[in-house]
Structure to design on (234 residues):
């Protein structure tokens, strides 16, 4: 569908402008901000359109959907798991993703480590932090994140590369600013500990409704879906 293609192309254009403007406000280089396009419910043809516009990284929150799409896509795209991961599903994604954004328990870390070792690779992960303390959300509490990172750092086939959060859904993204700021501070604090096998390099935060505020607060991976592909049906 040509119409679809034009819309997605235009959306990505506009997104890049908004990313650049937010980066400029924060005195940052927009080239340092990676867009992970969230493709849940999006069909392969539309994903290909985004790829043709230069988007190389895609995110899924469900294992089954990620596996299906990663196997269909005939293009060189990189997949990120961004949603809660059940231990028994790690085996399906271990060869298919470049990064897991949603490490949220020691049990899960053990399983990722075990599967990664079997697959002969080191898996890059981000620790999901439940900054706002919402009980509907997964993630490590901010106060225990340092201890969690230290424990995972001893696992040889996992490399912690940073932190991720999902901000509360609020009508005005300004209300989420403190969440992003808090996560960035946590990244800095943990980075100062110089823990072996850990690099506090990536801050994955910001979705369609709040990515500009997230960038102003230091995000270098954003996860927009709707602004690229349109509203999800169902
Ligand atoms: C769905 C989802 C997104 C994208 O949400 P949009 O509002 O469509 O941009 C980003 N991150 C996670 C973890 C998600 O589940």
């Amino acid at each position: 569908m040509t119409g679809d293609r034009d819309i997605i192309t235009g959306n990505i254009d506009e997104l890049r402008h908004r990313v650049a403007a937010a980066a400029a406000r924060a005195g940052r280089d927009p080239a340092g901000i990676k867009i992970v396009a969230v493709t849940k419910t999006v069909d392969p043809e539309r994903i290909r359109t985004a790829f043709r516009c230069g988007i190389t990284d895609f995110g899924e929150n469900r294992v089954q959907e990620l596996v299906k799409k990663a196997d269909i896509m005939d293009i060189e795209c990189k997949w990120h798991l961004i949603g809660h991961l059940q231990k028994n599903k790690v085996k399906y994604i271990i060869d298919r993703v470049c990064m897991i954004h949603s490490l949220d328990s020691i049990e899960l870390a053990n399983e990722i480590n075990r599967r990664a070792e079997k697959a002969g690779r080191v898996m890059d992960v981000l620790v999901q932090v439940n900054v706002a303390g919402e009980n509907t959300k997964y993630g490590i509490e901010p106060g225990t994140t340092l201890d969690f990172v230290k424990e995972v750092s001893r696992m040889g086939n996992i490399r912690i590369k940073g932190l991720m959060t999902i901000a509360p859904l609020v009508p005005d993204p300004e209300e989420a600013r403190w969440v992003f700021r808090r996560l960035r501070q946590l990244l800095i604090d943990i980075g100062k500990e110089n823990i072996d096998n850990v690099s506090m390099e990536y801050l994955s935060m910001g979705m369609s409704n709040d990515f500009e505020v997230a960038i102003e607060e230091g995000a270098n991976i954003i996860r927009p879906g709707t602004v690229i592909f349109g509203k999800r049906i169902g």
Remarks:
- DSSP finds nine helices and eight strands in the chain.
- The chain has a mean pLDDT of 96.
- Residues 38, 40, 61, 82-83, 166, 207-209, 223-226 surround pyridoxal-5'-phosphate (CB under 6 Å).
- The chain has one domain: 2-229.
